[in-house]
Design brief:
Layout (H helix, E strand, L loop, with lengths): L3 E5 L8 H13 L6 E4 L7 H9 L4 E6 L1 H11 L6 E5 L5 H5 L7 H10 L1 E13 L10 E3 L2 E5 H8 L2 H7 L3 H6 L8 E7 L5 E6 L1 E5 L21 E6 L7 H10 L8 E6 L1 E14 L2 E22 L2
Parallel strand pairs: 1-2, 1-3, 3-4
Antiparallel strand pairs: 5-6, 5-14, 7-10, 7-13, 8-9, 8-13, 10-11, 11-12, 13-14
Length: about 300
């Protein structure tokens, strides 16, 4: 009999008992054994639990949490061939949105994971040089976007209580406090190219997929299985400069403009003059002088709708 593991982020739920009972009923109705349950912790947000599930011989690993939980569980599944089932329970749920997977509907998400098809998608390996001394920290996995600068600052300042009440709308609210901000000066290296100086940036966003909440496409050409990183450089000129930039994002514009730069590569390295805040898939990490992202084509198997 087939068996799955469910790795849950307990901070997303006030009471897990009824939800566990409901999901276990669905497993039984589909002819699966009762799942192996595990919870994430601050010390291990999903990677170790996923590796333990693979070692136990499960057929499917479901991550019950937000984009951060999905990426950490995915890191533990790399190289195993065991598919990831996405039970999206986060604020943005961007991975689920880009894969057309139900979000915040856990029963529907589980039924899709049990009856869906396997799809191989790209994985991003993100390395940070925190001290600016050329020493790279061990890589972390990203599945959606890595943000450098203002994007990460906004996520870091978003109020948790407000996120619980209004979801992703907490992020635009937090962004109002950052309309006036210091701009970044950096060098960007694509693949094996030479460093290119870039000035006057607010944020660099390196994407594996491009659909945001509200149906907006920041990176219209981004695809989860094309082996390419799509990078957007945001450089609004003062407060007024935000308006045309936002209009371009809402319209899903593909062209490069004065306020939005666009790059494509398999490897990108961003070296900042001053340490910048970094986030991966909504998880705010810390400041770093340099960030290097490398795409790993078709490295992860996920369960998606048929």
């Amino acid at each position: 009999m087939r068996r799955a593991a469910v790795i849950v982020n307990p901070t997303k739920f006030s009471a897990l008992g009824p939800l566990k009972d409901s999901l276990e009923d669905i497993f039984r109705a589909w002819g699966w054994a009762g799942p192996r349950w595990a919870q994430t912790t601050m010390e291990d947000p999903g990677t170790g639990q996923a590796r333990a599930a693979v070692a136990a011989g499960v057929d499917l690993v479901c991550a019950l949490g937000g984009d951060g939980t999905q990426r950490c569980v995915a890191q533990g599944l790399l190289g195993s061939g065991v598919p990831l089932g996405i039970l999206a329970a986060g604020t943005g749920n961007l991975l689920a949105r880009n894969l057309k997977i139900p979000h915040d509907r856990y029963a529907d998400g589980l039924r899709m994971a049990l009856g869906g098809r396997d799809r191989a998608i790209d994985v991003c390996h993100v390395e940070l040089d925190k001290a600016g001394d050329g020493v790279w920290a061990p890589p972390q996995v990203g599945l959606v976007m890595t943000g450098i600068g203002l994007d990460a600052e906004i996520l870091a300042s978003a109020n948790d209580d407000l996120k619980a009440r209004v979801g992703w709308l907490a992020y635009p609210a937090a962004g109002l406090g950052h309309v006036v901000h210091d701009q970044m000066q950096a060098q960007i290296i694509l693949d094996d190219g030479a460093p290119e100086p870039i000035t006057g940036m607010s944020s660099v966003m390196i994407g594996n997929c491009g659909l945001l909440t509200g149906g907006m496409r920041l990176m219209p050409d981004a695809d989860l299985d094309d082996g390419i990183l799509d990078t957007v450089i945001l450089r609004p000129a003062g407060i007024i400069g935000w308006l045309p930039m936002i209009a371009q994002v809402v319209a899903g514009a593909r062209r490069e403009t004065r306020t939005i730069g666009r790059l494509r590569s398999q490897i990108i390295e961003v070296r900042c003059e001053q340490p910048a805040m970094i986030e991966i898939d909504g998880d705010v990490l810390h400041r770093a002088y340099a960030t290097r992202v490398t795409v790993d084509p078709l490295a992860l198997t996920v369960r998606v709708p048929r």
